[in-house]
């Protein structure tokens, strides 16, 4: 005579069994075996099609949640085009802007997380044209008003331009927010 515990274990074990034909069909769709089994169990082993729909809809929901949770960040560099800087000088100044902003970001726990997300999801960087020093300062003020981390490079004056010149403004944040500050600027070419 079976006890209640044995009956429950047998029922649970029966519930875990999946239709092997359906499982093979799901594996042919490149669905991992364990995920295919879960999908079949959740959908009651009705069909491979039902399980596949469940699996792919679950993936879609997960991707949407990840996008919401890990909104995409980017770092932009606005180059002061009124200054007579050569290509090498611009490259060096953009490098200063990237390093300076990143160093500031990792100092604070709140912005450190932003820097890590940015790095983890591709470290997107865009170099844009700013028309003048006044333009860079306006963009910086807007970035500050939106609580976007930024860094303004001031040149030491050892090579092509006067000491104290503002060369590049870097801004970091969620792509949508950064675009509100720099979205209308032209790419540096």
Automatic annotation (TrEMBL):
Keywords: Hydrolase
Domain of life, per lineage: Eukaryota
Record keyword Secreted present: no
SUPFAM superfamilies given in the database record: Peptidyl-tRNA hydrolase II
CDD domains xrefs: PTH2
InterPro entries associated with the record: Pep_tRNA_hydro_II_dom_sf (IPR023476), PTH2 (IPR002833)
Family stated for the protein in its record: Belongs to the PTH2 family.
Enzyme class: hydrolase
Recorded catalytic activity of this chain's protein: an N-acyl-L-alpha-aminoacyl-tRNA + H2O = an N-acyl-L-amino acid + a tRNA + H(+)
GO MF entry, a single one: peptidyl-tRNA hydrolase activity
The EC number(s) this enzyme carries: 3.1.1.29
Organism: Xenopus tropicalis (Western clawed frog)
Protein name per the record: peptidyl-tRNA hydrolase
Protein's UniProt keywords contain Hydrolase: yes
């Amino acid at each position: 005579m079976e006890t209640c515990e044995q009956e429950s274990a047998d029922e649970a074990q029966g519930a875990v069994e999946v239709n092997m034909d359906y499982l093979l069909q799901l594996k042919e769709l490149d669905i991992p075996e364990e995920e295919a089994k879960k999908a079949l169990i959740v959908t009651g082993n009705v069909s491979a099609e039902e399980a596949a729909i469940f699996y792919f809809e679950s993936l879609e929901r997960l991707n949407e949640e990840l996008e919401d949770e890990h909104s995409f960040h980017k770092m932009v560099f606005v180059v002061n085009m009124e200054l007579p800087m050569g290509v090498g000088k611009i490259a060096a100044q953009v490098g200063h802007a990237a390093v300076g902003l990143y160093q500031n970001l990792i100092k604070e726990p709140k912005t450190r997380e932003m820097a890590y997300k940015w790095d983890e999801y591709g470290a997107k960087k865009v170099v844009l044209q700013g028309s003048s020093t006044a333009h860079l300062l306006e963009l910086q003020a807007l970035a500050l008003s939106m609580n976007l981390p930024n860094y303004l490079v001031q040149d030491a004056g050892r090579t092509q331009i006067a000491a104290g010149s503002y060369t590049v403004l870097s801004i970091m944040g969620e792509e949508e927010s950064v675009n509100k500050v720099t979205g209308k600027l032209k790419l540096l070419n």
